[in-house]
Design brief:
Elements: H1 12-61, H2 66-72, H3 76-79, E1 83-86, E2 92-100, E3 102-115
Antiparallel strand pairs: 1-2, 2-3
Length: about 120
């Protein structure tokens, strides 16, 4: 049985193949990163809408403006696309539009949260 041959060093063809593979994988890696970033933005918008709903419910309970309270609990990028409504059984529902990759772009997706302090608001 003959001993196995080992290569010492690499040829120019191997170096070129590595460059082609890197260029081919780069768009896939960027797409995966963009999807992960969008999921993080969606989760953050949902968390912030819950925070704004709690602030609005507290303001509504003491007779203050729920919309202003919700707006003050959100960053400027989400304030512009805010929707606040009073629920029939008491409580407040806040909906915001999820930013798309960058805060200046908006996606068609909205997330929302409801909050009440347990009492009935008439």
């Amino acid at each position: 049985m003959a001993p196995a041959r080992t290569r010492i060093g690499s040829s120019a063809a191997d170096s070129g193949q590595a460059s082609v593979e890197t260029v081919a994988v780069l768009p896939v890696a960027l797409a995966v990163a963009a999807v992960c970033w969008q999921l993080a933005l969606t989760g953050h918008a949902a968390w912030l809408s819950a925070h704004a709903a709690r602030a609005a419910a507290r303001a509504d309970a003491v007779g203050a403006n729920a919309g202003s309270a919700a707006r003050s609990a959100l960053p400027a990028g989400l304030e512009r696309r805010l929707r606040v409504e009073r629920l029939d059984g008491g409580g407040i529902r806040v909906e915001v539009r999820v930013p798309f990759l960058l805060n200046r772009w908006s996606s068609p997706i909205t997330v929302g949260a409801s909050s009440s302090l347990g009492g009935t608001n008439q």
